[in-house]
Specification:
With about 170 residues, the protein is an alpha/beta fold. Helices cover about 30% and strands about 20% of the residues. It has four helices and eleven strands; from the N terminus they run βαβαβββββαβαβββ. The longest helix is centred in the first third of the chain and has 14 residues, at about 20-35.
């Protein structure tokens, strides 16, 4: 209760594994909009997909239908190591996982979202994220009003600020 924006990641209904199928994303939005008028914002992560076009394909597809068109689309304004850390064992579970978002990727995502009428939200992971966002504003790629989200992470993902009062 009280939420105004829902950011979500689609999951395979049988396994619970992360999914990238536009139909699953669209189904989620339909279910949300049947019961609420909250703002919807699907993820744009899917860093494991083979291309930037594949990473944004679900947003482009959903934007074709007014009933599933996302209100916002996030652009992660950072490249980051996203290895998972086990704080109980004091060790990393993985040690070579990079979430790659180049400047060219940011621009492609921004231009593609604009072309399908979806407003980007900049996901700010760190200080360089803020500086890159400002550069995109200066270049006219992001237009005001600019909406941003501060990325807060759990103990197992060290690439963002801790989602705690101290963090």
């Amino acid at each position: 209760e009280g939420a105004s924006i829902i950011h979500y990641h689609a999951r395979d209904p049988k396994t619970g594994a992360p999914a990238t199928d536009a139909k699953l994303y669209a189904d989620t939005v339909r279910r949300i909009k049947e019961k609420s008028d909250v703002i919807t914002m699907p993820t744009l992560g899917a860093w494991w997909l083979p291309s930037v076009e594949a990473r944004i394909a679900h947003i482009v597809e959903m934007a074709k239908d007014p009933m599933t068109k996302p209100d916002f689309g996030p652009i992660d304004m950072a490249t980051s190591n996203v290895d998972t850390y086990d704080p109980q064992a004091n060790r990393f579970k993985t040690n070579e996982t990079v979430y790659l978002n180049t400047t060219k990727t940011w621009q492609y995502f921004a231009e593609t979202m604009k072309s399908v009428g979806v407003k980007p939200i900049q996901a700010l992971w760190n200080v360089p994220s803020i500086r890159a966002t400002q550069a995109f504003i200066d270049m006219g790629i992001f237009t005001e009003p600019v909406y941003c989200e501060l990325v807060l992470t759990e103990d197992w993902l060290l690439s963002g600020h801790p989602g705690t009062v101290k963090g």
